[in-house]
């Protein structure tokens, strides 16, 4: 120990933890200075781990308990910390730089991290491995990395996965969830991180990138011990609110408000709550309050001002500010921002043509209809709003946007009717979108999404073969439309469900 120095100057775990906290801050603020500081601190943590890593290639006799001549105990922990640093540095690289070279560098870091976790997992499974005093912390680190990679890769669309498989990646959703569950159950340094990743998957990723079928009961079980121990912990109150929200219980509003009151240090955490509050009031069709939170986000937050502007749907705001608010990550514009900018173009004309149901269209992009479907009165309220929008549209002169707007309202009405149990009517509205495919001028994303929703409806009714046919058509017959990647994520999740596979249609053994 170096007396007078800071713990993170000589301790791998202190250094990694400190750098992780700074990275969380950078991810929340999107501030270039915070991103730079976090990146430099993570680089220093990685260098510390590098000095204590094993210099030679791993072998079957490389065990944690073996500390003769070489401190293998330390080396194994250094290896897992090094892999974690690589992964977090890659994430910061994607945020910090906008050129392709940096993007490639970030990709290389991800691949090196993946290969390291894979090798460490093989060591854990080898017959030569023996347990040391801190075996649990090492194994927990491996489970976190292996579980995270398997879960994330398994959710990718097939065409993306094929490219990743070419360079050595593979993913198994069930195995990934199992690894994270095991890591969460143990009392180790990374149990909390495993727990948080599972909560994110069940309450966010399964909704945004899937069909909205996260395990809410499992999420509640994971959260309960933390909420009991830290009843005023803002992050736990946030997840508690999110769980209630996706159950359709909009008493979640109180939890998000309580979450904001629980801490004042990070205003960006308040913004996460404002985002959820904005949608909660949208689900309730309390437009003034929804607009209030969208406006607050557009003024205070720098994550995606374009998206907030689209929810506000103000002609003046959209036409004057939206194009200048666009951001880039890894040299690429955010898909939701490109979508919002396309929608805002109709406000640029001398006589702006308003969007028929801007907040409800954005609600579909974020899979909000799965949430309102849990409560009949919420769904009926949204359906009433859509019917009012349709009546208003019918009384307006036809424009170049009319067919697109009619098809949008058909898709959204179909979703509401499906949630209310009116399956035949819902199918009728999805089919109407397909019948008008050649007449749609701008919103080409409506057709593959109508096929997706029609396929999910058939799947609910047990018409599996018909569902697969519709989903495959949505997957293969359309490209270069708005939010294409997100639609492909959802199609892939629906196909997994239809075909009963745990990952991207490829049987992967129990390995990372």
UniProtKB/TrEMBL annotation:
InterPro entries per the record? Answer: IML2/TPR_39 (IPR019412), TPR-like_helical_dom_sf (IPR011990)
Q: Entry's SUPFAM superfamilies?
A: TPR-like
UniProt superkingdom: Eukaryota
Q: Which UniProt keywords apply?
A: TPR repeat
Q: Does the keyword Cytoplasm apply?
A: no
Residues spanning the membrane: none
Q: Which Gene3D superfamilies match?
A: Tetratricopeptide repeat domain
Q: Which Pfam families match?
A: Iml2-TPR_39, TPR_16
Q: Which family does it belong to?
A: Belongs to the TTC39 family.
Q: What is this protein called?
A: Tetratricopeptide repeat domain 39A
Q: Organism, per UniProt?
A: Nothobranchius furzeri
Its taxonomic path starts at: Eukaryota, Metazoa, Chordata, Craniata, Vertebrata
């Amino acid at each position: 120990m170096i007396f007078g120095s800071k713990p993170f100057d000589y301790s791998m775990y202190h250094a990694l933890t400190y750098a992780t906290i700074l990275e969380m801050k950078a991810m929340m603020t999107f501030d270039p200075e915070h991103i730079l500081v976090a990146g430099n601190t993570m680089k220093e943590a990685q260098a510390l781990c590098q000095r204590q890593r094993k210099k030679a290639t791993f072998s079957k006799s490389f065990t944690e308990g073996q500390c003769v001549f070489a401190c293998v105990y330390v080396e194994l922990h250094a290896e897992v910390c090094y892999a974690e640093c690589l992964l977090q540095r890659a994430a910061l690289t994607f945020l910090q730089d906008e050129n392709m070279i940096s993007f490639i560098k970030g990709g290389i870091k991800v691949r090196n991290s993946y290969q390291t976790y894979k090798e460490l997992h093989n060591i854990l499974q080898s017959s030569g491995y023996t347990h040391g005093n801190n075996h649990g912390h090492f194994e927990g680190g491996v489970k976190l990395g292996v579980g995270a990679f398997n879960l994330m890769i398994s959710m990718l669309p097939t065409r993306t996965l094929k490219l990743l498989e070419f360079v050595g990646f593979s993913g198994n959703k069930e195995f990934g969830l199992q690894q994270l569950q095991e890591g969460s159950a143990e009392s180790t340094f990374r149990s909390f991180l495993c727990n948080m990743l599972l909560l994110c998957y069940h309450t966010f990723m399964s909704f945004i990138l899937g069909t909205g079928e996260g395990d809410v009961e499992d999420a509640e079980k994971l959260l309960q011990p933390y909420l009991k121990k830290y009843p005023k912990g803002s992050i736990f109150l946030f997840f508690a609110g999110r769980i209630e929200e996706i159950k359709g219980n909009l008493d979640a509003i109180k939890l998000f408000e309580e979450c904001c009151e629980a801490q004042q240090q990070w205003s960006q955490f308040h913004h996460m709550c404002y985002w959820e509050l904005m949608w909660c009031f949208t689900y309730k069709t309390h437009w003034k309050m929804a607009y209030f939170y969208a406006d607050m986000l557009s003024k205070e937050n720098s994550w995606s001002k374009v998206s907030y502007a689209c929810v506000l749907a103000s002609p003046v705001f959209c036409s004057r500010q939206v194009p200048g608010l666009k951001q880039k990550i890894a040299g690429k514009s955010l898909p939701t921002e490109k979508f919002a900018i396309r929608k805002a173009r109709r406000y640029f004309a001398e006589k702006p043509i308003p969007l028929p149901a801007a907040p409800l269209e954005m609600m579909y992009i974020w899979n909000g209809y799965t949430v309102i479907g849990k409560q009949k009165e919420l769904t009926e309220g949204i359906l009433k709003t859509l019917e009012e929008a349709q009546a208003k549209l019918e009384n307006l002169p036809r424009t170049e946007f009319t067919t697109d707007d009619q098809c949008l309202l058909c898709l959204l009405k179909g979703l509401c009717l499906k949630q209310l149990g009116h399956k035949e009517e819902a199918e009728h509205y999805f089919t109407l979108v397909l019948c008008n495919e050649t007449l749609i001028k701008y919103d080409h994303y409506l057709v593959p999404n109508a096929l997706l929703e029609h396929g999910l409806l058939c799947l609910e009714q047990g018409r599996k073969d018909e569902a697969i046919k519709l989903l495959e058509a949505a997957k293969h017959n359309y490209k270069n439309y708005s939010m294409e990647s997100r639609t492909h994520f959802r199609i892939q999740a629906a196909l997994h469900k239809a075909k009963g596979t745990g990952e991207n249609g490829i049987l992967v053994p129990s390995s990372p």
